[in-house]
Amino acid sequence: MSEIANIEETTICACSTGNCSGAVAVVRMSGPDTIDILSKVFKPKRDVDLKTVPGYTLLYGDVLKRDGSPLDDVLVSIFKAPHSYTGEDSAEISCHGSNYIVRELLSMLTDNGAKYAAGGDFTKRAFLNGKMDLAQAEAVCDLISSETEAAHDVAMQQMRGGFSKELEAMRTNLLQIVSLLELELDFSDEEVQFADRKELQKLLDDSCSQINSLISSFKLGNAIKSGVPVAIVGATNTGKSTLLNALLREDRAIVSSIAGTTRDTIEDVINLDGILFRFIDTAGIRATLEAIEKMGIERTYYKIRQASIVLMMLDSTNPDGFAESIDNLSKRINSSEQTLFILLNKCDKSSILPASEKEEAAIHSEKTALNADDLVERVRAMAADAGLYPSAILPISARQKVGLDVLESMLVESQKSLRASSDMVLVSNMRHYTALKDAYNALLRANVALGEHVPTDLVAQDIRESLYSIGTIVGAVSTDEILGNIFKNFCIGK
Fold first, then answer.
1. d(CA 489, CA 494)
2. H-type helices in 249-345, by residue range?
């Protein structure tokens, strides 16, 4: 049975406020039998016929148990099709947030014909009933999970159709092109050209440029949504896991003096001044024959390539290892696209201070930085020789939390663009990004083919492939499998 046929026959219900008890809970119901089922369990305080009550009506009354006694006094919001979130008759029952009350209420609704909703069922119905396109539906999930103002603004902009409008304008242009080309095919025997080739070339160039701009925005959009990826890298025992724990303010990674303790990457997200950073603690880089550790090091190299920011840890008590670490990193970092900070860890150790100060019991960060100037310049020269130009070289002590406030400020400052971009149309969804790349590649083929006077039918086929890829984003092209993969990540009741 198709999705559309299924929703036309069933009424669903779910608690939209989670499974934990609280002051208030909201139970939602949507489908053709909503009003009939509601009338069997709800008795308004005033005498009204629920079937004739207009939409956008709020009623106060009692939910009655099977024996007629009251379960709870509730507020019921009634919405009539098509003027509801799902486009169907819908109701929201606001009751006290007792788990017992919610369970009993849901049980009574299902006893009277409703079915328990799966994750995303309400939003899926909104899409299938034409209340929103697929990109907007996915933005609902992003809005719920947004943890920063920027992530919220991007999700809101997409949910209100900003991204969809750009795609629709693009689809209109491409449909115009392919329609003219296919019209020529209908009159191929007469060798008539309905479309000026220079004009078509310009339309294709404009479409390619527009799609490429959206593709390029994914790096920023994904960073706003999922967090700026920050890889903490370096040789073994430089303090990478200690730094991660200090930044997260919890013992997230195992810290040990035994080299090679971290075998795999460990990730966690923190909010620094309204910006999400996804810190990735990686396996220490060193020559090893141990199979599992080698796998961890390979993953480290992969995470370095993925990161927007790389924090390179150097052990300031072991300057002899600097050159090898810097040279190793220089082969795996893209200096033009990635931000690099070099951290001279263990600055609380007296080995980097003049001998006259080695016996001091306390070392302040200002004093440490002053005495570490020579070491900083030495590292800067080594980095330059290897073709690396770090944004900063900072002495820190991850264990003593010296210099971490400065590091956090530098991280936030490096991502200022995340604050100023919330009004832009950004791609933040991997599915959309992949579909846009497919559409772009198809248009590039069409563009080249048009310039090389390839037969019209082949040019039109490439443009149709691009239209198909764009259509999968907004749901103009969809299957039950695609919908299942998208909505399975939604919470119950949304």
1. 11
2. 291-306, 322-330
Q: What is the pLDDT along the chain (494 residues), one digit of tens a residue?
A: 455 556 668 999 999 988 777 899 999 999 999 999 999 999 999 989 999 999 999 999 999 998 889 999 999 999 999 999 999 999 999 999 999 999 999 999 999 999 999 989 999 999 999 999 999 999 998 888 888 888 888 888 888 888 999 899 888 888 887 877 777 665 555 554 545 677 778 888 888 999 999 999 998 888 888 889 998 888 877 888 888 888 888 655 444 443 444 434 577 888 888 888 988 887 655 444 454 545 655 666 677 777 889 998 898 888 888 888 888 888 778 888 889 999 999 887 645 544 444 444 344 444 444 456 788 888 999 989 989 999 999 999 988 888 999 999 999 998 887 765 556 788 999 999 999 999 999 999 988 887 777 777 888 889 899 999 999 999 887 777 777 778 877 888 88
Structure-derived torsion over alpha carbons of residues 139, 142, 147, 149, reported in degrees to the nearest 10:
-10
Estimate the crossing angle of helix 197-216 against helix 218-226, to 10 degrees: 30
Scored b (16 or more CB within 10 A) or e, 229-244 reads bbbbbbbbbbbbbbbb
62 in Cβ contact with 74 (< 8 Å): yes
CA 25 to CA 15: how far, in whole Å?
A: 7
CATH number at residue 236: 3.40.50.300
Classify residue 351 as left (phi > 0), alpha (psi -120 to 50) or beta: alpha
The count of domains in the chain is 3
Q: Does residue 493 fall inside a structural domain? A: no
Range of the domain at 207: 140-217+426-475
Ordered alpha helix ranges (H), 187-257: 197-216, 218-226, 240-248
Pair of tokens at residue 328: 């190793």
Radius of gyration of the chain (CA): 30
CB 306 within 8 A of CB 333: no
Asked if residue 457 belongs to a domain, the reply is yes
Of 295, 278, 286, 316, nearest in space to 395 by CA: 316
260-285 exposure pattern, b = at least 16 Cβ within 10 A, e = fewer? bbbbebbbbebeeeebbbbbbbbbbb
Amino acid 138 reads: E
Tokens for 282?
């990686």
Half-sphere exposure of 461 (CA within 13 A, CB side): 6
- Phi, psi for residue 82 in degrees, rounded to 5: -95, 10
User: What count of other Cβ atoms lies within 10 Å of the Cβ of residue 79?
Assistant: 21
In a domain, 491, yes or no: no
Could you give the CA distance from residue 43 to residue 261 in angstroms, rounded to a whole number? 64
Same-domain status, 344 and 461: no
Indicate yes or no: pTM above 0.85: no
